[in-house]
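User: Is it possible to get a 3D structure for a protein together with its bound compound? The compound here is uracil. I've pasted both below.
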Amino acid sequence: MNIIEIIAKKRDKQELKKEEIEYFIKEYTKNNITDYQASALIMAIYLNGMTDEEITNLTIAMAQSGEMLNLSMLGKNVVDKHSTGGVGDKITLILMPIIAAIGIPVAKMSGRGLGYTGGTIDKLEAIPGYNTNIDIKQFIENVKNIGISLIGQTMNLAPADKKIYALRDTIACTESIPLIASSIMSKKIAAGANKIVLDVTCGSGAFMKSEEEARKLSNRMKQIGKLAGKETICIITNMNEPVGYAIGNNLEVIEAIEALNGKMPEDIKQIVLELGSYMVKLAGMGENIEENKKKILENIENKKAYQKLIDLVKTQGGDIRYIKETERFKKAQFIFKVISQKEGYVKKLNAQKIGEISGDLGAGRKTKEDKIDEAVGIILNKKTSNKVQVGEVLAYVHANDEQKGRQAVEQIKEIYEIVDQKVEEEKIILGII
Ligand code: URA
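Assistant: Yes, that's possible. Here is the predicted structure of the complex:
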């Protein structure tokens, strides 16, 4: 087989055979295919798409490119969760302790940020001492002992995805249904759970900008899950504006801790209840979605989920004083106010742009090697549909560089679209597939 012929086939809109896809994945993982050849093929896939069969073959080849974890020792039904990415997305930090508090084992490997979207592992590492890099034996032990462990990808799981994911980020090929579906499902298949709940984000801050695209991606991933014997539910959630009010690592961790202490913004609450109630259902712990939602609320109100977060942080070496006294988290040197010059209602607040500004302040990475500044970011004070007066604070910019902070203030002013007419609140849960 020859990579040049494979590239030419996809360039000419032909369907790739299973063996050709397997050859590409195997040889690229072993570095026998160059990044520029892989880039050409990825771009051809981006432009010309893939059939359902090609996507399934790509997913399975990527899942089998490294080790495959077996979690069956944790129970009959082990449920995993994944998001297609967003801005201010701290749902895993809030939801997983709740799920563990209900008595469902949580053994989850998360990723780092991609482009303007944040990653759960970067957020967990904002908690001083928290070790995201424990070995698999310890990972399983922790789940057996306290019911939960959240780590980075310490095993060699789907290494082909790791390489292709990093490549896509540098060649403008992130927003593609075949590539996203195979990336997510290969990791989920290799990560060992047999039930999967996916948060398919949709809107300005997501890879899928329209509901139609999000539905297509959901159907594709559900179908791959079925073929792999893993029951999969997709919840399409609104990502037109950031999730919650905080964007940036320390700021998001503080918002997550407060949420588990009962101070949960409405959009976060809706996402947590919807994803969580389906996780409970797939785990075989409750057929009735409304009853499951009540169970989730109960575990927040009685602080069992908050206690689970403390157990998790303690077991992974983190300093629990930060969870109990959030003012210990390092603050940025400068906090600037973004003041409204207009009166009216917030019509739009482009999540991608907010994510990019937060990244420029230092909360994200431009290259894999970049170091994150955990203290910086943005706290929104007004969100879509809120009424605003002249002189009111729209948002706070947390910066460690005065110049960058002032620039962020000006950029955020431009992003807030304020109109005279009343604006309806947007729906948060857009569909369940
Ligand atoms: N999340 C992933 O794991 N992969 C993608 O391609 C996009 C979001």
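The chain has a mean pLDDT of 95. The first helix runs from residue 3 to 11.
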